[in-house]
Structure formats: structure tokens, C-alpha cells
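Quick start: read one record
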Amino acid sequence: MPTVYFHHSEQDMRYAMKLPWVSFGLDGTALRADGPLSQGFPHPRSYGTYPRMMGLYVREEKVITLEEAVRKATSHNAAKVRIFDHGLLRPWMWADETVFNPEPIIDKATYENPHQCSVGVEYVMSMETS
């Protein structure tokens, strides 16, 4: 059964984001804002981990730079889990590309209403680069 744990504060989050060895990942599941996959109350991060990072911590609070946030969510994270053919846009590597607008990007999901899509993500593509 899914469970939501509260184990760190916003101050802890801001501190950890600045550490050079910290990367960003997500353990959410595939969901939709409507239909059968919209049942229950999943953690809001399922809909907004990366938009929250880019909108709140990068744009609004300037905890880290946009470039550092992208690196921590892509190549740094892939390397930490030893997936060396992901995380960079290079020939013959798998690329999960996200096109987003850094001005409006933000998460909208809450604990009370988690099935809300984020704002500012234009496209998400997954492909092998060549």
C-alpha cells in the first residue's frame, strides 16, 4: 500500500540540493489526471518533482542554477546508478528529452489534490540518439 512519509524539512532539502554528490530522482508510478489511473492519493511528486525543482528551487529561490539542476536530474543521476548510456545527448546514447519553458514551470499537485499536471512542460520524448 502506498505511504507518504515526512522525513525532512524544506531547509534540509535546500541544503542537500547544494551538495555536490546529491542528484535528483523519482520513485513515483505511472499516473493520469483522469480515468482509472487517477484513483487514490499518490504523493504529489508523481506529478511534479522536476517542475517543482525547476520552478521553486531554481527560478524562485535560486538555490542552484538551472544548468546544475538539469545535470543533477540527468547525467549525474544516471552515472550514480551506473547507467552510462543515459543522461547525456550524445551519439548512440538513450535520451529522455524534456522541452520546458523555465518561466512558467511549476508543480500544481498537492497532498489534498495530487492529480494535477504541472505547468511549463512542452514535450517529453524518449529515443536513442544517433
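The longest strand covers residues 121-128.
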